[in-house]
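RECORD TYPE: inverse folding
INPUT: structure tokens
STRUCTURE:
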């Protein structure tokens, strides 16, 4: 229950999120919206740990192409002897790489062939069913790999977005009689997501038992231009996170 004291309510919400995320999300909200009846708060924090960690000595500043004309320097992790699952989608014109994380999660990178390519078609394709089909087609290969270090920090008021879903009735005529004697309805939705991908990993070297495709020359997979990232639960196929990275410096 809110006290109607803006500063106290803001402090209580931020403290609660800080406790629930064990201090990983320090400030969930910057300010308290006015005229709150009920506020729905969602917070997600994910710190990815690779199955095979990257050597921090190989992390250096490299070029990331924002478009044809603009290039910026970002911290790029690299592995000249990576083992990953790989495929090419000719319809979407993108190269797909999948790397295993711990706890049954994998990261899938959808990298357009050209830096100027519109990614809308790829975005609209990323359903659980499509990614499941992609997963079945990928082949295990050796690769010279480079990836930007990432720390995504995204916060947004999602009231208007939720109103466009089947939950619209929560804003108009909900039945909240079990939690309030007074008639109330949802007025605000606030969401914050933080995702980190650095060099951290479970072990130093790839599993020697992996049956990687025998290629005379390993493929080159350099995530050095705008791309889409999907985190997937390997057991259920659930998509845990979808992100479009246009500039790794400002996320």
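DESIGNED SEQUENCE:
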């Amino acid at each position: 229950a809110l006290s109607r004291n803006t500063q106290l309510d803001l402090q209580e919400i931020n403290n609660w999120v800080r406790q629930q995320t064990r201090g990983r999300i320090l400030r969930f909200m910057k300010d308290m919206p006015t005229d709150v009846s009920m506020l729905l708060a969602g917070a997600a924090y994910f710190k990815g740990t690779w199955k095979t960690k990257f050597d921090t000595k190989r992390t250096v500043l490299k070029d990331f192409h924002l478009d044809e004309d603009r290039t910026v320097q970002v911290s790029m992790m690299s592995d000249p002897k990576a083992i990953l699952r790989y495929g090419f989608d000719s319809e979407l014109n993108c190269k797909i790489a999948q790397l295993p994380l711990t706890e049954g999660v994998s990261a899938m990178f959808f990298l357009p062939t050209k830096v100027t390519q519109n990614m809308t078609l790829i975005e609209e394709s990323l359903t659980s069913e499509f990614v499941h089909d992609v997963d079945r087609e990928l082949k295990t290969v050796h690769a010279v790999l480079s990836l930007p270090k990432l720390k995504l920090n995204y916060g947004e008021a999602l009231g208007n977005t939720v109103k466009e879903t089947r939950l619209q009735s929560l804003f108009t005529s909900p039945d909240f009689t079990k939690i309030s004697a007074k008639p109330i309805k949802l007025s605000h939705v606030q969401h914050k997501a933080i995702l980190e991908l650095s060099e951290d990993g479970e072990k130093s070297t790839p599993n020697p038992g992996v049956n990687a495709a025998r290629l005379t020359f390993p493929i080159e997979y350099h995530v050095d231009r705008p791309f889409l990232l999907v985190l997937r639960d390997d057991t259920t196929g659930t998509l845990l996170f979808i992100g479009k990275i246009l500039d790794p410096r400002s996320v």
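NOTES: The chain has four helices and eleven strands.
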